[in-house]
Design goal:
The chain has one domain (2-190): Rossmann fold, CATH 3.40.50.880. Helix content is 26%, strand content 32%. It has five helices and twelve strands. The protein is globular and about 40 Å long. The two termini are 15 Å apart. The chain binds glutamine. Glutamine is lined by residues 45-48, 78-79, 82, 105-106, 133-134, 136. This is Pyridoxal 5'-phosphate synthase subunit PdxT. It catalyses: aldehydo-D-ribose 5-phosphate + D-glyceraldehyde 3-phosphate + L-glutamine = pyridoxal 5'-phosphate + L-glutamate + phosphate + 3 H2O + H(+); L-glutamine + H2O = L-glutamate + NH4(+).
């Protein structure tokens, strides 16, 4: 199984390492033509406005929308979550507009720019060490969205069919269980 990590900006190498720990082969994606060889794609953290601009510049908006239309799984972490959302609070234009969620950027405020915590995530056997860095929150979710975890009553992990998102960075620790969950999602969709 081959899983891509969008390599326009952000923590690409760490995601590839976590994917490989989860038994998949990870590859950095810099050109849209690479998407046809992939079974799934991760959109990493970074800065969502910059990632959005680079996606537009290199033709990734339509290419990833097509990839999603084929039912191929996508996993957005932190800024990747923001670019997958249908709505961004504050009137900012959405990017891929794939997932039926509304997000608030930098939602934890300046005093809590980054922190770590152990999170219970539905579908994982043990609490996950989650690293939040200037993280977004999901402030509203449509009926097709399943909430997988919350932090202080706010949604921080969610799934809608073949789409998975987390507010935090699951690639910055040695715990690859959320990557393993994503790899399992891909296996399910590949099954005839
Ligand atoms: N604060 C960033 C944004 O709004 C996301 C931060 C991250 O990906 N760690 O795009």
């Amino acid at each position: 199984m081959k899983v891509g990590v969008l390599a326009l900006q952000g923590a690409v190498g760490e995601h590839i390492r976590s994917l490989e720990s989860a038994g998949a082969s990870g590859t950095a994606v810099k050109r849209t033509e690479q998407l046809s060889e992939l079974d799934g794609l991760i959109i990493p953290g970074g800065e969502s406005t910059t990632i959005g601009k680079l996606m537009r510049k290199y033709g990734f908006i339509e290419a990833i929308q097509d990839f999603s239309r084929e039912g191929k799984p996508l996993f957005g972490t932190c800024a990747g979550l923001i670019v997958m959302a249908k709505e961004i609070e504050g009137g900012e234009e959405s990017h891929l507009g794939l997932m039926d969620i509304k997000v608030s950027r930098n939602a934890f405020g300046r005093q809590r720019e980054s922190f770590e915590t152990d999170l219970e995530v539905k579908g994982l056997d043990a609490p996950l060490r989650a690293v939040f860095i200037r993280a977004p929150l999901i402030t509203a979710a449509g009926p097709g969205v399943e909430v997988l975890s919350t932090y202080k009553d706010e949604i921080v992990t969610a799934r809608q069919g073949h789409l998975l998102v987390s507010s935090f960075h699951p690639e910055l620790t040695d715990d690859f269980s959320l990557h393993a969950y994503f790899v399992e999602m891909i296996k399910q969709t590949k099954r005839p």
